[in-house]
User: Which sequence fits this backbone?
């Protein structure tokens, strides 16, 4: 894990996992290969409204296509479960995109080696709010 990422990692009230902090710092630094390397070989990123993305290489490619210009601001979190094979955390905060900001919840799974087994990203917005964002999003 990059010490540079950890130096710029946000403070998350209730969670002190270095891997989770490095994930958010890496997203904000647009260091997508570094973020992807935090995942286990079969780690999964589940973006909102899209198919799961599996494996570090696919995750790095996905983030380079979809996360440019996004800034994430995690604010608080909690440990949901602690099993021998996985710890599960829920983090809430905001994702700031060039044209709007939306409240977000991230659910992380971490294995005993502190690798990310999965991140599920949920938008915390009403359907009406999401539809109001639609015209702002432009895709090539």
Assistant:
């Amino acid at each position: 894990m990059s010490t540079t990422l950890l130096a710029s990692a946000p403070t998350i009230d209730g969670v002190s996992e270095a891997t989770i902090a490095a994930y958010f710092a890496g997203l904000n630094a647009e260091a997508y290969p570094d973020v992807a390397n935090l995942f286990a070989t079969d780690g999964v990123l589940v973006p909102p409204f899209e198919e799961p993305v599996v494996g570090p290489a696919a995750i790095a490619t996905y983030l380079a296509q979809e996360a440019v210009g996004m800034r994430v601001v995690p604010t608080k979190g909690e440990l949901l479960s602690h099993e021998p094979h996985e710890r599960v955390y829920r983090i809430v905060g905001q994702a700031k995109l060039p044209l709007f900001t939306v409240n977000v919840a991230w659910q992380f799974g971490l294995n005993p080696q502190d690798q990310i087994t999965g991140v599920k990203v949920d938008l915390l917005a009403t359907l009406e709010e999401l539809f109001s964002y639609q015209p702002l999003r432009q895709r090539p």
User: Anything to note?
Assistant: The chain has five helices and six strands.
